[in-house]
Design brief:
mainly alpha
Length: 198
């Protein structure tokens, strides 16, 4: 294990400033955990999706269905409160006279939740604070998603092409995720807390 590559890497690593080392460790952990949780979530979705492998145990505790129904019901009540004549049927919500908007597993935003959880989780700090911040961030993202589905239901009655809505939503929601993460970073730096070591 005395190769020139390893020696050069070790020399480079020692020569770098401490903050670059911490950034490199943060980036490595964030990428590692993102792909790890991506594999876990993809497996879970495969096990609970009807027509897939369908693990009977996991089907009884399918949290994704609960989140889908939360989005559908919340959008239904939000549109009703805004005086729209709405309907909901299973995982579809819409204004009467339209086909409605179907909400699937990929519509609930669990990849965005995973992104903010990994970024905040890998950043130095106290785990109790991280957990509260992650949960609050997930609730904010979930609320934005409810507004998105409600807006799509309204736009569906105006014969507007909704093909590009997902791309636009991704820009908005990942922008919000970046702001949430920067807010977390600034929250610690503004209070003068010492950054914990990994």
């Amino acid at each position: 294990m005395n190769s020139p590559f390893i020696r050069n890497l070790a020399l480079w690593y020692k020569a770098q400033d401490e903050r670059y080392r911490l950034f490199f460790l943060f980036a490595f952990k964030a990428v590692f955990f993102y792909f790890f949780f991506d594999a876990v979530i993809t497996t879970y979705v495969g096990l609970v999706t009807p027509g897939g492998i369908e693990s009977k145990l996991l089907m009884q505790w399918n949290v994704l269905d609960w989140f889908v129904m939360t989005i559908v019901s919340s959008s239904y009540y939000l549109l009703s409160a805004l005086q729209f004549n709405v309907f909901k049927n299973g995982d579809i919500v819409g204004i009467i006279g339209t086909g409605g908007i179907g909400v699937g597993y990929y519509c609930i935003g669990y990849y965005v939740w995973m992104t903010i959880a990994v970024l905040v989780g890998c950043f130095p700090g106290k785990w109790k604070v991280k957990l509260y911040y992650i949960l609050a961030s997930i609730l904010i993202i979930h609320f934005v998603n409810i507004i998105r589905i409600s807006l799509l239901a309204v736009l569906a009655q105006y014969d507007i092409d909704l093909e590009d809505q997902h791309i636009i939503y991704n820009y908005i929601i990942y922008g919000i995720t970046a702001l949430l993460f920067l807010g977390y970073v600034e929250w610690f730096s503004n209070r003068g807390e010492e950054v914990a070591r990994w």
